[in-house]
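Predict structure. Chain length: 235.
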Amino acid sequence: MKFTAPLLAATLLRRYKRFLADCELADGTRLTAACPNTGSMLGCATPGSRVWLSQSDSPTRKYRHTWEMVEVGKVTVGINTGLPNKLVREAIENGVLAELAGYANLRGEVPFGVERSRIDLLLQSPARADCYVEVKNVTAAVSDGIALFPDAVSARGAKHLRELMRLKADGLRAVLVYCVQRGDVDEVRPADAIDPLYGRTLREALAAGVEVLAYRAKVSPRGVALKERIAVTCP
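Prediction complete.
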């Protein structure tokens, strides 16, 4: 996925109220950008960090700018949780995510399940079982090349895992894809210290046959694209 217009480089002043970030451009202009990430943004919201913002000309938007990525050490991290579904869909259509190839139809945001969920992607073909794909954005990491999910307690994440287990029990294909928007990690682990329930539920889902994949993205101010599969481990 390429950005349609160049991103603006800025310095992060603060992130607050979850959905807002104050930034300063190189010329000293200060502005408030929308922050499209509901998580804690662990390690990705340090004041003084270099960030990149997209711009919108929509007259209905209160904030013209959207925070897209941040520099953490030597790596650029994509923080926009609105992108992962698009990135996974693009990777499927381009043959990068080979595990999900070969389906005739692909739909997004389809209602399903007993807990009133919406699946991120539904893949269908006449001769195959329906494939339900849940996508999660991963930004948090520890220094030894390990990404962590979630970065805050996620009751919604555990709910989605339960729904995937029910689908698997009904004979359908159930897949969780971690979209890792940073290039300095080689595996994804559950953040047990942050959300032990999610970690337990993920292990139950794996034991029940839910497929869990992780793909690492190349992130730059020019665009973001999933490039290669990395490991998912539950020590």
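Summary: The chain has a mean pLDDT of 95.
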